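[Meeting: bench + compute handoff]

Bench side (C.D.) handed over the final construct sequence. Compute side (W.E.) agreed to return the predicted structure before the next meeting so the bench team could plan truncations. Sequence as handed over:
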Amino acid sequence: MKPPILRAHPDVEALTEERCHILELSNSPDDPDLSIARARVEPGVSTRWHRVIDTLERYVILDGTGRMEVGGLPPQDVQAGDVILIPPSVRQRITNTGVDDLVFLAICTPRFRPEAYEDVEGI
């Protein structure tokens, strides 16, 4: 049996209302326990405050520098190699503090579903 290979298609990267470019790498009902997306935030940009209901997220920083805010915790600076754990249903945002794109993997369990996303900017 040949194992399935999921290939990235950079031409389908989408800019979201959250102010973040997203490239879905793995997100399918056939694999409901996990999804993986590559996220890209441009220099000087902060994503909107948001939360993902009933979904644990992990950000794996690949390139760039940023400042992460999770719930009521103090902001923390992040860089390549850092892993950020974001509990289910907790508000969050990330800011690119560098001069190059901030690039990270967003790994969600269970898989990300658009109906679980909630914009909480200003709340």
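W.E. noted at the follow-up: The chain has a mean pLDDT of 95. C.D. will use this when planning the next construct.
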